[in-house]
Design a protein that fits this description.
Elements: E1 37-40, H1 48-54, E2 60-63, E3 66-69, H2 74-77, E4 79-81, E5 87-90, E6 98-101, E7 110-112, E8 118-125, E9 132-135, E10 142-143, E11 146-153, E12 158-163, E13 170-171, E14 174-176, E15 179-181, H3 184-187, E16 197-202, E17 208-210, E18 213-215, E19 226-231, E20 234-240, E21 243-245, E22 249-253, E23 262-268, E24 271-274, H4 277-281, E25 288-292, E26 295-301, E27 304-307
Parallel strand pairs: 1-2, 2-5, 3-6, 4-7, 5-8, 6-8, 7-9, 8-11, 9-12, 10-13, 11-14, 11-15, 12-16, 14-17, 15-18, 16-19, 17-20, 18-21, 19-22, 20-23, 21-24, 22-25, 23-26, 24-27
Length: about 325
């Protein structure tokens, strides 16, 4: 039996033996830091916010292996990136070895208000709301956000949230090679009729979302947001080579006409599957694999949608 988590519908894969599923294409690691470096350890969890606030542009904050207790609340443990060009990443490059744990005591673990911010090679766990939330400063667009090889586990709301602040949008950015996940344990903390999901973006232009694994976004009651959702005046999005498993809604562009819609998009080479008995036992079930609603100039090709029961809306 093929494990759906290791299947990817791509047009170009290496030759494999019969009966063996193609694996998701690996991502190259980021290059070593090139500017100033500040090293931090789990014992520094209480000063990490201040370290980031005081870092100069171009600095990399390297986190050594261990669990960082970030449960003290937003005023002390929410990491705010207001200086452009900062990087937060693990020293080892092993995302499972560096864990920032909010234990549902801190609303947002990482808040981004500056261009060219990089978050890489670490795990974010149990934020009360969004583990990563990016929005431009008021009426000032930002760009160049890179979220690479990040494991987000059990967010209280969406795993990665992109919002405008007035006309301060978050554009020309990338989410790649990451794992966004809602587990059975985390599902018990979801509120507001299943207000959760993987990536949820508003008014974002030029986003690339590729090679991510997104799984488990559903609730016993209520309808979850999508695994990947680009809407409310998003435009020029490319979503490719992602694996979306057991999410009530897979990939969505737009959520209605006009202001809730999406302009120009490409959805290609993604694999979306619903096979979990718990998902189908929920009130919403499997709604749709790929949904376009108010999505103008959409290109959708070379995707696979598979489910063990008929979706309540449609596969596409």
């Amino acid at each position: 039996m093929i494990d759906l988590r290791h299947v990817l519908a791509v047009t170009a894969v290496v030759t494999i033996a019969p009966g063996v599923a193609p694996a998701q294409a690996p991502c190259d690691p980021l290059p070593p830091p090139s500017g100033p470096v500040i090293e931090q350890y789990p014992a520094d969890a209480d000063i990490l916010r201040a370290t980031i606030a005081g870092a100069a542009s171009g600095t990399t904050i390297l986190l050594h292996d261990g669990v960082y207790d970030m449960s003290g609340g937003d005023s002390t443990h929410r990491l705010v990136f207001s200086t452009p060009g900062l990087t937060l990443r693990s020293a080892s490059g092993n995302r499972e070895a560096v864990i920032l744990d909010g234990n549902y005591g801190t609303n947002e673990l990482i808040s981004i208000y500056a261009s060219n911010t990089t978050i890489a090679d670490l795990t974010l766990r149990r934020a009360f709301d969004h583990p990563i939330h990016a929005s431009g400063p008021f009426n000032t667009p930002i760009s160049g956000l890179l979220i690479h090889n990040v494991h987000v586990i059990d967010p209280g709301q969406q795993a990665v949230k992109i919002n405008p602040n007035g006309t301060g949008t978050v554009d020309d950015s990338t989410l790649q090679c990451s794992h966004l996940e809602l587990t059975d344990a985390g599902r018990t903390h979801i509120r507001d009729s299943c207000y959760t999901g993987g990536l949820d973006a508003h008014a974002a232009t030029g986003w690339l979302v590729r090679r991510n694994l997104i799984e488990g976004f559903w609730c016993p009651t209520g309808l979850s947001e999508h695994g990947i959702h680009m809407w409310r005046l998003c435009q020029d999005s490319i979503v490719e080579e992602n694996v979306v498993i057991d999410c009530a809604r897979g990939i969505g562009f737009g959520l209605g006409p006009g202001g809730d819609g999406h302009l120009r998009c490409i959805i290609r080479n993604n694999f979306i599957a619903a096979s979990d008995a718990g998902l189908f036992a929920s009130t919403a079930g499997f709604d749709s694999g790929i949904s376009l609603w108010g999505a103008d100039d959409a290109e959708v090709y070379h995707n696979t949608v598979a489910s063990t029961q008929t979706p309540s809306a449609s596969s596409i």
